[in-house]
Every structure is written in structure tokens, then in C-alpha cells.
């Protein structure tokens, strides 16, 4: 029996009583102002919840409390799910660690020491390597480095000489504002075959200084034109009095200039060692000096090299008879080429056939 919540004096066994969902108190349908049709619907449908007036006043607080409880439950369930996922990951990692440990244990049980012994032997062999071998390897590396440097320097020198082969150097030419026109005029006077297009570039070398005359670099179009100009360099002395101290030469590299200076110093020293007036003995001395210098330069440029030559017969069976047959065959062939008749042709064919037979027999007998 439900607890009576209605204030009337009637009994609660009346069929028209309705119970509050929140406080569970019973009320008469007509006391709480519910129509019969509404009461009939509420009574027949189980999902409809009815609240009394007192509970309706408290309902907002209850709803907020229920919502807070539900949110807390949801958060707790989320954390529980995350903990379950972490537990699953830890379980998988533990299984992997167990399997790895088991494999290592199995490998350790199968290990017989052969791999370690091999490594120790290799290490011992490396340690037994002699000091001489180590020095030899290091020296070989250094030699290779030196060879590479020498090749690089030689290649650089060759390229430098190639770049300078068409150049002319002019020295002691007074500097003016019209240097280029003046140099062109001098070059054309030295060789009338030189044109303006044959002179590619004219430039002073080095920074300008009042106490020093800078040399002039003249780049010609080809080496042949440069040789034409240098061939007539002696004309500079007779051109003009301002050019009596001007001279021209090849554009030499640093090594070439050093070698030339060395030769000049040697010549000067030999000249000092042979003082006195010119006579027949001094002429002989100069001739000997000239010959020795020529031989020295030739030996430096093209040194003498001895080659042992051995002559080996390619066909030892080829004797005088074979030579005679070959000569006769060639003679008949020339005659046939000249006359163009059948008689000479047949004679040449017979001689050729005989030569081939004799050559084959002698080759087989040898």
C-alpha cells in the first residue's frame, strides 16, 4: 500500500490515485488536478513519469546532480578504458621481452666459441703486422701524394705555357696615355704583315708606379704572327731614339725565367773565367763552349736512350728458292697488267700456282 501524500480524508485504495516518481507518495487524481483522460494515459503508459508539486520544486537540483553523476561516471569509464589499453600494451611488450630473452638464451646454449676464436685470431694477425709493413704502407701513400702533386704542377705548367705561347712582352716602353696605339704602331713597323685584328689585347702589367716602368703584355692572334714580330725585333734600335732601350721577348713562365737566368749566370761566369783579348785560342774555347752548351741543351730536351734491337725472322722457312719464285711471279703479274692478253695471264697463273705449292711444302717441312 502506498503512503498517502494527499491532504484529503479519503482512502488511498481508490483506483484514481497516482504515485509520485520521486518521493513515492500517492495522490488522488482529482486532488492534484489531473483530468481523467490524462490520468488514463499516465496509468496506461509505463514510460511516463509523474512528479508532485513538492518534487517539481526540487527537480532542477536533482537534474543537475544526476548530470554531474553521469559526467563523473563517463570520465571514470574513459579512464578505465585508457588503463585497459595501457595494460594491453604492457602485456604485449612483456611478451616481446620474454621472447627476446628466450632467443638469447637459446643462442647462448648453441654458442660453441668458434666465432669468438675467429675474431681473436684476426685481431692477433693484425697485431702481428710488422712495423716495416706499416712504414711501407705509409711511405707508399706519401709517394702517391707526391706523384699526384708533381702531375698537378706539371699540368699547371703546361697549361700556363699554352696560355702564354701567343704573347709578347715589351719592356722599358715609357708610359703614356696612348699606349695601345703606340704599341700597335711599333708592332706594325716591325712586321708589315700584322693587321689590327691580329692584335687581340694590349695591357700594362702590375700597379702603376712613378719609379718603375710597367711591362706591356701583347696577345697576338696566333703563334706564327708572334714569331714574325720577334724575328724583326732588332729593328727597334733603328726606329726612334726613344726606343733604343725598348726590347721585346717571349712571355715566359716563372720556371722558364729561372732557367734562363741560370743559363745567363753560367755564361757570365764562364766569360769571366776566360779573360783576355780575342785570339785563335779564345775562339777555340768559345767554339768548345758553344758545342758543349748545344750538347747539354739537346741532352736536356731529348736525352739519349739506348734501345736493344733484336731481329727475328717471321718465316724461317723462306729461303732463296722461295724468294726467286716470288720475284718471278711478281714479274709475270706486272707483265700481264701491262699487256692484258691471255698468254701472259696463263703464265702468271701457272707461276702463282707453283709458288703457292712450293711455299706450302716448305712451311710443312719446317
From TrEMBL:
GO MF annotation terms: zinc ion binding
Cross-referenced InterPro entries: Zinc_finger_PHD-type_CS, Znf_FYVE_PHD, Znf_PHD, Znf_PHD-finger, Znf_RING/FYVE/PHD
Keywords (A to Z) from UniProt: Metal-binding, Zinc, Zinc-finger
Statement: the UniProt record of this protein carries the keyword Ion transport: no
Domain of life (superkingdom): Eukaryota
SUPFAM superfamilies assigned: FYVE/PHD zinc finger (SSF57903)
The keyword Acetylation is assigned to this record: no
Domain Zinc finger PHD-type, residue spans: 5-56
Pfam families, per the entry: PHD (PF00628)
Protein name stated in the entry: Zinc finger PHD-type domain-containing protein
Source organism: Helobdella robusta (Californian leech)
Organism taxonomic ancestry: Eukaryota, Metazoa, Spiralia, Lophotrochozoa, Annelida
